[in-house]
Amino acid sequence: MSPKKSSPLMPEEEGRARILAALKPIETVEELPLSQVRGRVLARPVEARRTQPPADMSAMDGYAVRAKDVRAAGARLRLIGESAAGHPFAGIVGAGETVRIFTGAEIPEGADAILIQENTERDGDTVVASAPVETGRHIRRRGHDFREKEIVLEAGVRLAPRHLALAAAADHGALAVTARPRIALFATGDELVAAGTADAHPGAIVDSNGPALAALIEAAGGRLVHRGRLKDTPA
Length: 235
Description:
The protein is of the alpha+beta class. It has two domains: about 15-45 and about 155-230, no CATH class; about 55-140, Beta Complex (Molybdopterin biosynthesis moeA protein, domain 3).
């Protein structure tokens, strides 16, 4: 009697195609705070609710000046105030004047350059430049990062920490994300036992793939709802 022939294995490509054909796209959307969306898939584009920076800002610590007043080393300027992040100078920088400024502070009206503090000497309310400065130097222009109503994140992005920072800068405290797919994981074979129980099952094989696959499911954004083992059945 000739031995029974085994069925040929299904090619990987065919198996993958069958699985994908049986799946339905997830349409459920959840609105969650930024603290809960890392690793999730963005369901809708994110539109900036503000302009960033909202005004011309200093990129360095130093002095806000009119570039035409500092065309050469030795220029002397009169200090008239200070501009700090969140606390802008309310006045106007006029001829021969300067305002002490810090990184992230708004450029005061009248100024068009930043003379960095390393290129200055100060004597009371007089600031002496040790180098010239060009118009626009060390200034981050309004809207350099993005402008209001600009799309800053496209739908379908898997959200990483950098995306959360961008969403927050665009004034979003929560994002719409696709619901996580619910996945059941089964290992097949009578010979398999759970890790940590091998001593109680001589001759058995520890299920080492199960924990790895479960971790991969979670890492890919899935939600593992059941994990079990299936016994062998006669061919």
